[in-house]
Write a structure and sequence with these properties.
Strand order of the largest sheet: 8-7-17-18-19-16-20
Strand content: 15-25%
Helix content: 25-40%
Shape: globular
Number of strands: 21
Length: 454
């Protein structure tokens, strides 16, 4: 029977551990902090539910549904409200609903007539060379034009990566988009033909995937995994060193201030890349993870505000609102949290989740808490008609929030692939390897477990 060490008890490590444990594998999960779940954490105060990190999981794969079923928490799963289907973008300092049909697109004031008719030329835009690592901004300018970059792609990238389209790589940050162009030569043709292929595979695009959470927030998922893995988890136990010995891996962790060594057949590395860079790995040939320190993680502040319903003029009839950089607001965008899921606010109140900082304005996260609240409330006042003071406030700051798959990210991917080949038994998994969404991280853990079992 194989033995597997998993370093990092975020959602990736928890998922991998659960799938391995199910198959009788001896699993030990090391976590340096005093809790599992990483950025997934929920808190309920005064009737408001605040998420510290992500608010939803996109159900893009049957593997996500299967995990929830196998954990026995299907009855606690909730999908986003159908009435919260609108998505808003800001233009001319006003939130405008994103059109959901071709007719609506040609009527929307979000884009000029010139930008709309530019779409007809998209199938004729040249395909980029397959070996070019192109910035997303250049890709969009080439195929769709400046206006779509400013008012669609820039805010979308801020909402997903808290990133900058001029720095992110199409090939690595949006690989499906890159593959569509390489295969079909057109995004429009790829959208039509790709839908058929996804249906055959049983997968769903992220744009169309159901959004889910749980009755008490996403922490329900990680707390259930923790209960099932209780005897396999070592909290407050950082790993200092890994040494390759006789076909196995000796993992040295710190237990109550003293080194403790245990041998394993395999090791899954699922902590953030900037922490991996400090891990000492002794093997032949040499394994050096210091390059991973160059992966950029911008800081992000998550601000949750609770208001009386009558103090918000906007209908809040949607998923949320993204803010283009050219509109010059403080925030990256708002989620209408209490419109998405029930019981996120007490009766007669609403909950909003706002994000600040990121690659767009990393310096903003260094502001004092009161100033971060003030800037968020100013944006809520202008864009959502908020008046008076919120009755609930919650702030979480991540100094290293989301790995940026920037141009040149291939060197990191290549390094991980090379190490896995040269040092059998090491597996890289998590948001720095397989995509940054919560769903991506679940699939990364599940797929890595499958690789080991295979």
């Amino acid at each position: 029977m194989k033995s597997v060490a998993i370093i990092g008890a975020g959602i990736t490590g928890l998922t991998a551990a659960f799938r391995l444990m199910e198959r009788g594998v001896d699993v030990t999960l090391y976590e340096a902090s005093n809790r599992v779940g990483g950025v997934i954490r929920s808190v309920r105060e005064d009737g408001f539910l605040a998420e510290f990190g992500p608010n939803t999981i996109l159900e893009t794969s049957p593997k996500i549904s299967a995990l929830i079923k196998d954990l026995g928490i299907e009855n606690r799963r909730i999908y986003s409200s159908p009435s919260a289907s609108n998505r808003y973008l800001v233009r001319n300092r006003q939130p405008i609903a994103v059109p959901s049909s071709p007719i609506g697109f040609f009527k929307t004031p979000l884009f000029s007539t010139r930008a709309k008719f530019r779409l007809f030329t998209e199938p004729f835009a040249r395909r980029a060379p397959a070996n070019e690592d192109e910035p997303l901004a250049k890709f969009v300018l080439r195929r769709l034009g400046q206006e779509f970059l400013d008012y669609a792609i820039n805010p979308m990238v801020a909402g997903i990566f808290a990133g900058d389209p001029a720095r992110l790589s199409v090939k690595y940050a949006f690989p499906k988009l890159w593959n569509v162009e390489q295969r079909y030569g057109s995004l429009i043709l790829g959208q039509i033909l790709g839908a058929r292929e996804r249906k055959r595979r049983g997968t769903v695009s992220k744009a169309n995937a159901p959004k889910l959470s749980f009755d008490q927030g996403l922490e329900v998922l990680v707390s259930t995994l923790e209960q099932r893995l209780e005897h396999h988890i070592r909290l407050s136990t950082p790993v200092r060193r890994m040494t390759q010995k006789d076909g196995k891996w000796e993992v040295v962790s710190v237990v109550e201030g003293r080194d403790s060594a245990t041998n394993f057949d395999c090791v899954i590395l699922s902590i953030p890349a900037h922490k991996l860079a400090d891990l000492e790995v002794l093997a032949s040939p040499q394994v050096d993870l210091s390059l991973l320190r160059q992966i950029y993680y911008p800081p992000v502040a998550s601000v949750v505000l609770g208001y009386r319903r009558e103090d918000i003029a906007h209908k809040l009839d949607g998923f949320g609102m993204l803010i283009p950089q050219v509109e010059k607001f403080n925030s990256l965008g708002f989620l209408f949290s209490s419109s998405l899921f029930p019981n996120r606010a007490p009766a007669g109140h609403v909950t909003l989740t706002c994000y600040l900082g990121g690659t767009r304005s990393p310096e903003r996260v260094s502001l004092c808490n009161d100033e971060l609240f003030r800037q968020t409330e100013i944006d809520a006042s202008v864009l959502l008609g908020a008046k008076g003071n919120p009755v609930f406030r919650h702030l979480t700051i991540y100094k290293n929030a989301i790995p940026q798959y920037e141009v040149g990210y291939g060197r990191f991917k290549d390094l991980m692939t090379q190490i896995e080949a040269q040092a059998p038994g090491i597996y890289f998994a998590g948001h720095y390897r397989d995509g940054i969404s919560t769903g991506d991280s679940i699939l990364s853990g599940d797929n890595t477990a499958t690789r080991i079992l295979g």
